[in-house]
Design brief:
By secondary structure, this protein is of the alpha+beta class. It has 2 domains: 1-35; 45-158, Immunoglobulin-like (Sandwich), CATH 2.60.40.1220. Helix content is 30%, strand content 41%. Strands 1, 2, 3, 4, 5, 6, 7 and 8 form an 8-stranded antiparallel β-sheet that branches. 13% of the residues are buried.
Length: 160
């Protein structure tokens, strides 16, 4: 029913088939490895490493403030969204803050959005941002009131 392939053709054919599969697998790996834009290098990473202790000291000062920040991202459906920030201390909203927001994809260094947030209610601040997809984002928040400085990075999942 099936014609037998002579061994002097079959075995060299198997060697070429296995080598071909290896080449195809490597091409697929290379394409997948380079399709995300390449390596993501942190800007000024050396300076950040040198000032690591100072950054940890700033985190301790933020914890001493006793401020709580929550972030919610609300998609608006037109490739935009709204970032809602709530700042509280002892359950009461914190007013009079200058709030800056940086929205980032956790796997990328370049931010999706950088800008200020406007007060919407006592302790609540809102800003409009470009938002072309759902998923996980890091929201870096900087809030300043007088000589008080709050800085935190909050991971948020955006769902439909």
């Amino acid at each position: 029913m099936f014609a037998r392939i002579p061994p002097h053709i079959f075995w060299p054919g198997m060697v070429f088939a296995i080598l071909g599969m290896s080449v195809i697998a490597n091409v697929v790996l290379i394409v997948n490895a380079t399709s995300d834009g390449g390596p993501q290098i942190v800007p000024d990473y050396y300076s950040k490493a040198v000032h690591w202790d100072e950054a940890r000291g700033e985190e301790a000062k933020v914890a001493d403030l006793g401020w709580d920040a929550t972030v919610r991202i609300e998609p608006s459906g037109d490739d935009n969204g709204y970032i809602h920030l709530n700042f509280e201390k002892d359950g009461a909203g914190i007013e009079g803050l200058e709030v800056g927001v940086t929205l980032r994809d956790p796997a990328k260094i370049i931010p999706v959005f950088v800008g200020p947030a406007a007060p919407a209610a006592p302790g609540r601040y809102v800003t409009k941002t470009p938002l072309s997809r759902f998923g996980v984002f890091d929201v870096e928040v900087l809030a300043i009131r007088g000589n008080e400085r709050f800085h935190d990075v909050i991971r948020v999942e955006v769902v439909e």
